[in-house]
Amino acid sequence: MHWDPFTTLQRALWIGGGQWAGKSTVAGIIAQRYGLTHYHYDYHDARGHLDRQTAQQLRRGETPVEPDAESMWIQSTVEQAVDEALTIFVERFEYVQDDLRALVSPRPIIADGWGLRPELVAPLTSSPRRMVVMVPTEDFRQCQLRQLQRASALRQDVSDPELAQQNRIARDRLIAEDAVRNAKRLNIRVIEVDGSRDAQAMAGLVAEHFNEFLS
3 in a domain, yes or no? Predict the structure, then answer.
């Protein structure tokens, strides 16, 4: 049984899915509309979680190794990159649970992030309706790659930037597909984001799904 002394994990609302689906934007809008506490996975993952991972490696007698872009995007296959990401998600989800257990709030908590995988979240929730999985359609993803600099540029120095970007896009696509498969298996709703709705409308759609928990 998962330790959840304040039932924070059972009562949280979760938004997982693929990269560049607007998860954080939607969660932020819902949090402001309904007065929720917003937990932003990417922010914690890029800061405190990396420090915790380093501390754990040191306690195990391991030498922490900084992520190497050349190894990740050029020397590894896309399948290896997917496997590595899914493995890391499992480890870091333990950190997410610790973070959320520490949030004792009279308001519902809404958490978003691509590392919030359906198969990891489902055992913690009181209902599969407490989660949605948002994934961009391929056309919308291509539109983002053309229009958003942060989506179209790899920020690390590598020997072949074009190949690295292709591998990153392929990895993200496969990880999103994996999230969809697991969500459907667990009876968790999947929302495809095609760009036809703006952020406010997408937030309304997700809030409607969560309606019974927001009243």
Answer: no
